[in-house]
Amino acid sequence: MKIKKHNPEEIISYLPRIYIFKHLNSEEKRNMANLCELLEYDAKDKIVSEGEISPYLYAVVKGAVSVMVHEKNGKDVYISSIGENDIFGEAGIFINVKRIANVIADDPTIILRIERNRLIQFIRENPSAGIKMLLLVIYSLLHKLREANQDIAFERKSYINQEEVDKMISELFK
């Protein structure tokens, strides 16, 4: 990871594309740009480590990342991809909680990162913009929860029904 030289104008140019910052006015964008960092990652670099506690919210500015979970058997399981202008790490802005997955750059990637206390500072100074941003963060979390619930429901449907298996075996060996 390389921290790019802080260039507020470059950050300002990215903010309208990232949906949680889309509704900020010019002054709010300038204020936000002064609170964010741009980070550059090479392909396969780890951005977030499963199990770490960090107070950051991330947005993919360029490139894409994969979300992976490390299982006890040593395998990494692919969960999802996150592309340009989308966010991840939302829980880190609300509470100190262990990250539940690894996030790895798929290709050369630029990430915008903001630390919880800086975001809270922005919200206090810009309450109207802060409310809009928090609503969009909550929407993002709810959307991800819905997808996770659908995945769980699909997995449950895909398991073999034991009664059907027993019936099939019973009929085969009559």
Structure description:
The protein starts with a strand and ends with a helix. It has a single domain (2-172), classed as Jelly Rolls, CATH 2.60.120. It is 39% helix and 25% strand. The chain contains five helices and nine strands. With 174 residues, it is of the alpha+beta class. The model has no long low-confidence stretch (mean pLDDT 88). The strands form two sheets. It has a five-stranded antiparallel β-sheet with strand order 1-2-9-4-7. Strands 3-8-5-6 form a four-stranded antiparallel β-sheet, with no helix packed on it. It is elongated, with a radius of gyration of 21 Å. The protein has helices at residues 8-14, 26-33, 116-125, 127-158, 162-172; strands at 2-3, 37-41, 46-48, 56-62, 65-70, 76-82, 87-88, 102-105, 109-115.
Task: Give the gist of this structure.
The chain is of the alpha+beta class and 174 residues long. The protein has a single domain (2-172), classed as Jelly Rolls (Sandwich).
Please tag this protein with its features.
174 residues, 5 helices, four-stranded antiparallel sheet, Jelly Rolls, 9 strands, alpha+beta, five-stranded antiparallel sheet
Topology at a glance:
Blueprint: E1 2-3, H1 8-14, H2 26-33, E2 37-41, E3 46-48, E4 56-62, E5 65-70, E6 76-82, E7 87-88, E8 102-105, E9 109-115, H3 116-125, H4 127-158, H5 162-172
Antiparallel strand pairs: 1-2, 2-9, 3-8, 4-7, 4-9, 5-6, 5-8
